[in-house]
Here is the input.
Amino acid sequence: MTSQIPGLRRGLGNLCYRSSSELSKVFVNIHRSNENPVVPAHRLMPGRTFSSATATALANPPNEFPSLFIRRDSIKASGSFAEATATFLDPDPTHVTELSILLDKTETGVVAHYYMDVELQGVLTAVAKNYKHIAIADSLKMGDMAVEMANNGAKQVICLGVDFMAESVQAILNKHGFGHIPVYRADVRKIGCSLAQSAESEVYRAWLQKEGVGQPALHVIYINTSLETKAIGSSMVPTITCTSSNVLQTLLQAASQIGPDLKVLYGPDTYMGRNLQRFLQVVSESWDDDKISRELHPLHNRATLEQLRHNLSVFPSGNCVVHHMFGESVVDTVQRLYGDCYVTAHLEVPGEMFEVAMVKSLTDDGVVGSTSNILDFIERKVRQATEHTSSTKNISSNRLRFILGTESGMVTSIVKSVQQILASATQNNNDDRDIEVEIIFPVASEAVTATDDPNDNLKLVPGVSGGEGCSTAGGCATCPYMKMNDLDAVFDLLAMIETSRNNNDQEGDRIRNLLRKHLPPDRLTSRQINGRDATDLGTEGILYMRAFMKDKKLPIELCDKVMMARTC
Here is the structure.
């Protein structure tokens, strides 16, 4: 019955006017409508030792991916990559205590991306139980959490991510009247991003210039780009920012609100753009008009979706180094050995992996979307298992298996959520079944690095030699740029903050000068682009996106820019 299909009973009829999170669920669960630098992977802190985790190495059969087995009170690992990852999930209590003391003493907030170093996430998660100024989130939410921390007394914020994230966090703080609160990066070196850098080239600007003429055009730019890129884009073509959670609804609403002649320029993520084109094709060919208007968007039908697909221009030369590796070789192994698994895939993965996850989603066996969408999907499936929901796979064997088609760093959040759900179910339902959740990393088991410290008990850490974190034999599990943020860097940074606060002498001045090198890149201050303040231009698309997420329609100001005085 329809009422038994997850999502439909929550009301998916008039999605144009529902929350962005609800609308994104239609995309990530399409089944519901179908009745820079090469850096070390880890730097050891002098005098510090790693804790022994509740991880047990299991035999890893040839050709199989490494995986974690999560139960309510234990974690086991299969394969050296998973074993190395699991070791960091049970943080050293000494690290937790020391970090808690330093954060509290310096009144420092920390915002970290889901893809952060697993060891660092493990410690931060433990500290967050008793310290309020810590948040692990996606790139959009990081800025909001920083504002909340500033409102609650944080004197500075450490941003654990890549440079454009720190830059955006600082800009959002400035917009909310907290320009006096500094945002510090963990490393003085440039912390790049292959995807963001692809949009900083002359090629991207030439693409905008070429595609943005001839008919009304809207530039939909992925949030994972620099403010400078957003500013330049806004100066060339009317621009709105999007996330992987709201990109589909942005396209649908723009086409319905502005008109069928609208040309949408999506960039810079080539895989995501092509996956969106493929999604629109599949829906326009397999759904009828009533189903499209009822469950996707009330003002769309098969013809309008096909027109949108035809008018969607995708930048051809941008990708994330992490998601780029989830290609044909990984998919072959998934199909050959993991046919009974749920498959999750970030929207940024190549088409081969996207196709597998999208097909799986038709029967509620997969999900494509953002990191938050992937986490929500796993949480929902685990809850169904604890509630004895009949639609849950593998319930007879008490094991749920998930292919994690995104950066492995988010496994910290997955483990935390899964264990909380399992523990709560045991306590509330007197459920004596020992449900096990397997998280499978589609990466070669060899994708680890041997440490060179003879006193280090942990001989392997995630990421292949050189820190690139990828293996052409089995996918890409870790981002080399994200891994420039690590635990010892945070300790060093907090020590400098403490010294700068307590010393007004020459040493204090020296430390304060060092801290300035940890500030985000500032390429827009006092800069004008076409006679407008560059910072205002860089944040304009973000503000348009936030207005859209709130009102469920594009701002009139943006529509007027697209249509040159035509009212939306």
DSSP finds 21 helices and 21 strands in the chain. Confidence is low (pLDDT under 50) at residues 1-62, 444-476. The first strand starts at residue 57 and ends at 58. The first helix runs from residue 20 to 28.
